[in-house]
Amino acid sequence: MLQQTRVSTVVSYWRKWMDTFPTINDLACAPVELVLECWAGLGYYRRATALHCAAKEVVSRFEGVLPSDVSLLRSLSGIGPYTAGAIASIAFNAPVPVVDGNVMRVLARLTGWRAVDVKSAADMKHCWKLASELVHPTQPGDFNQALMDLGSLVCTPHAAECEVCPLRGPCRSRSLLEDGIIPQIPGVIPPTASKSAPKEQEVTVCVVYYQSGEGRSQVPCANSISSASSLLSFLLFKRPAEGLLASMWEFPSTDAVAAKPEPKRRKVQSASAAASSSSTSSSSTLAAVLGSLGRDADVAQAEFCGEVVHRFSHILMTLRVHCVAASATTDVARFSPRTARWVTEGAELESVALSTQMRKVLRMAQAHLAAHRAAVQRQ
To answer: In angstroms, rounded to a whole number, what is the distance separating the alpha carbons of residues 330 and 193?
Structure first.
């Protein structure tokens, strides 16, 4: 969970995860849908599916007991040399090293080697060998964690805080600097480069719903929603098992297309702010999405809610959100081979594995429909 994610963000997810899956066997036996529900919001969902696969492998190959041997750990799904070394040294006190970018930098500076190239296989191999020679024989977990923390907090890429560094005495680079042999503490190769601009994409999303408690056959439009106490049910589709957001649930959507150049949008735009720029470009794609619903959703009743902008690591995606009333009698089996389901507001909707961007879409749609409810009640 901590890979590319801050501790402050992870804590609540970790507690929920451990409550749900207290043992490896619990995780291995759980359906992937539940695994993704517990992970939803953390991003990088491949980590969750890899962890799930690894748990199954531990149960099938090692009788549910996580191996302590590095080579066996590396044979599990999603576990590379860094993770294997961390598990073995921290959890099992095995005298094995851990090497990441922070550790590479510390070791290179400590030995007066040179600026380390974090993308070089030869440099990585050299650092693993050096770390193997230095790892503490009886406290390897503490040693490895200290080395990683030293690199992230003190011996950082852009500045070496030598005055507070506990290794300033034996540090070769520090000695070379004081003797005037080198002009500065070696840095990192390649230097941190500015990130390239993300690809801009657009998606039309249809939040298809029906209102419960008003008769199963009723087809309400947003303007006819009259009871604040009636719950809404939403139509969700399961994404493919491979690719971006694998196996997560989503509202019916078009495939992402390259965004047309236009003025920069805010993260969330209201319908009134974005309708003029959206109505024309979205009409054809909206019809395409609703075409699969046939008579169970009326294009004429589709109401534009607004735009949500969500950023992935490499994609800036604009989602044009529409609310569409449908028949409560729609049989999800008709959408085969795609998996679909109706999900009702409340605990069921809160627990379903929706990505962060789809949660944003849901909040916008709920606010839009709630506003109509309030308007109807005032009449």
So the answer is: 51
Average the pLDDT over 33-45 and give the result: 87
Cβ pair 301, 339 in contact under 8 A: no
Contacts of 80 (CB under 8 A, 6+ apart): 74
DSSP string, 193-245: PPPPPPEEEEEEEEEEEEETTS-TT----GGG---TTSPEEEEEEEPPSSSTT
The token duo for 157 is: 């890429």
Which of the 8 DSSP states describes residue 329?
T
b/e burial code for range 68-102 (CB count within 10 A of at least 16 → b):
eebebbbebeebebbbbbbbbbeebebebbbbbbb
3-state helix, strand, coil in the chain (%, to 5): 45, 15, 40
Give the pLDDT band of residue 254 (cuts 50, 70, 90): confident
For residue 180, how many C-alpha atoms fall within 13 Å in the half-sphere facing its CB?
0
- CA 190, CA 103: separation in Å to the nearest integer? 16
**Contact at 8 Å (CB) between 171 and 109?**
yes
Could you tell me the two tokens for 141?
């977990």
CA pair distance 361, 350, nearest whole angstrom:
14
Asked whether residue 378 carries a pLDDT value surpassing 80, the answer given is no
Question: Which neighbouring-strand residues pair with 201?
Answer: 258, 317
Cα–Cα distance measured from residue 320 to residue 94, given in angstroms and rounded to the nearest whole number:
52
- 265 with 307: CB under 8 angstroms? yes
The torsion region of residue 78 among left (phi > 0), alpha (psi -120 to 50) and beta comes to: left
pTM: 0.68
- The 8-class DSSP code of residue 87 comes to I
Angle subtended at Cα 266 by Cα 265 and Cα 269, rounded to the nearest 5 degrees: 95
Please state the φ and ψ torsions of residue 325, each to the nearest 5 degrees. Answer: -80, 140
